[in-house]
């Protein structure tokens, strides 16, 4: 058994049968040929293990970034094991702009397309030129964005292609003409800043995130634990009548996204603690390990949170974090 504590950001004391480090494409192919269960991790920043994993864990470690340009755009190719935030910061400081809103999202570049990472009005798919992956036969396939079926924290890599492919590289297209996206609440104050530079936006985002999202090196967590639920119009109407300040956002198709953080907060759970796990007191959407939490503490806490939100608002929460039991992915219920 090998300890998984250093390889996932909840910092739980769990193990796996084996761990392989994937440093080149051949390692990815050998990993795919391992019998199931197996699980590929980047930084392990979006997983919760509920017990020891009876299978092989692959840790993506491939490295390399290439940049080329044409008249209109920079084209960036990053190996799957590159750290996402390092890439975002390094590009921004080199004068290659566009990714600032996605700064400080934990994880690797290869993990970015899997759940189509997003923050502050931008998501990975806005910049994706291609995603490259290998299959167990060793064939390298390059997918165009449309083939990946990107959605809100979703892609085919998380759906039907799971376990069949390993993402080896991503391609990003960053237009040279920079157009900052500043519509999201905490960014609006920048709309009036004259001569705003990409680096200013990057630093602003880093500051906001540092204030609201705990550093996993200090307090174990996996970012937002739940997805923001999407509700239909009658449900949104009912919420608005009872809670006129509910921050619901229209998706333009008759449905509305309601911030799970707001629901959890208004259910009175911000700062709630269960054994050594708790609801983070600065952002209710994040569940934390205060040190020494058992996987069961986090599962119980998550169920309690989802249950209270359902009882109070009639809205079901679904985890954003992927939950893994002994032999594979499981649901919270
Ligand atoms: N809110 C509260 N109380 C809280 C937290 C939030 O009332 O404790 C309210 C806020 O006041 C705001 C609304 O809920 O009106 C939304 O909150 P916030 O701006 O913090 O964003 P979020 O919806 O909670 C999402 C993403 C984050 C991303 C931020 C910024 C999901 C599941 N989460 O959070 O992504 O950083 O927006 O774009 O979509 C992640 O995926 O791990 C992640 C951190």
Give a written overview of the molecule:
The chain has 333 residues and is of the alpha+beta class. The chain is built from seven helices and 21 strands. The chain folds into three domains: 2-60, Uridine Diphospho-n-acetylenolpyruvylglucosamine Reductase, domain 2 (2-Layer Sandwich), CATH 3.30.43.10; 65-209, 2-Layer Sandwich (Uridine Diphospho-n-acetylenolpyruvylglucosamine Reductase, domain 3), CATH 3.30.465.10; 214-330, Uridine Diphospho-n-acetylenolpyruvylglucosamine Reductase, domain 1. The chain is globular. The protein binds uridine-diphosphate-2(N-acetylglucosaminyl) butyric acid. Uridine-diphosphate-2(N-acetylglucosaminyl) butyric acid (EPU) is lined by residues 119-120, 213, 223-224, 227-228, 247, 259, 261-262, 265, 270, 283-285, 320. Uridine-diphosphate-2(N-acetylglucosaminyl) butyric acid binds at residues 119-120, 213, 223-224, 227-228, 247, 259, 261-262, 265, 270, 283-285, 320.
């Amino acid at each position: 058994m090998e300890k998984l504590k250093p390889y996932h950001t909840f910092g739980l004391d769990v193990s796996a049968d084996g761990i392989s480090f994937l440093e080149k494409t051949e390692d990815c192919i050998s990993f795919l040929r391992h019998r199931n269960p197996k699980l590929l991790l980047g930084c392990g920043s979006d997983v919760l293990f509920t017990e020891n994993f009876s299978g092989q864990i692959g840790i993506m470690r491939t490295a390399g970034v290439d940049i080329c340009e044409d008249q209109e755009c920079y084209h960036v190719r990053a190996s799957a094991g590159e750290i996402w935030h390092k890439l975002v910061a390094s590009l921004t400081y080199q004068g290659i702009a566009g990714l600032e809103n996605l700064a400080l999202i934990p994880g690797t570049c290869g993990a970015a397309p899997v759940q189509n990472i997003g923050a502050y009005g931008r998501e990975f798919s806005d910049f994706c030129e291609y995603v490259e992956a290998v299959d167990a036969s060793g064939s390298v396939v390059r997918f165009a964005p449309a083939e990946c079926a990107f959605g809100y924290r979703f892609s085919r890599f998380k759906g039907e292609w799971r376990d069949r492919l390993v993402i080896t590289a991503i391609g990003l297209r960053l237009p040279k003409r920079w157009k900052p996206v500043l519509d999201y609440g905490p960014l609006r104050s920048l709309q009036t800043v004259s001569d705003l530079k990409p680096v200013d936006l990057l630093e602003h985002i880093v500051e906001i995130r540092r204030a609201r999202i705990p550093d996993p090196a200090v307090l174990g967590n996996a970012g937002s634990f739940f997805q923001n639920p999407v509700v239909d119009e009658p449900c949104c109407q009912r919420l608005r009548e009872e809670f006129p300040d509910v921050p619901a956002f229209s998706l333009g198709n008759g449905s509305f996204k309601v911030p799970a953080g707001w629901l959890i907060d208004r259910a009175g759970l911000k700062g709630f603690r269960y054994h050594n796990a708790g609801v983070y007191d600065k952002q209710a959407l994040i569940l934390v390990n205060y040190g020494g939490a058992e996987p069961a503490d986090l599962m119980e806490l998550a169920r309690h949170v989802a249950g209270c939100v359902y009882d109070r608002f009639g809205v079901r929460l679904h985890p954003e974090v992927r939950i893994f039991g002994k032999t594979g992915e499981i649901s919270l219920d």
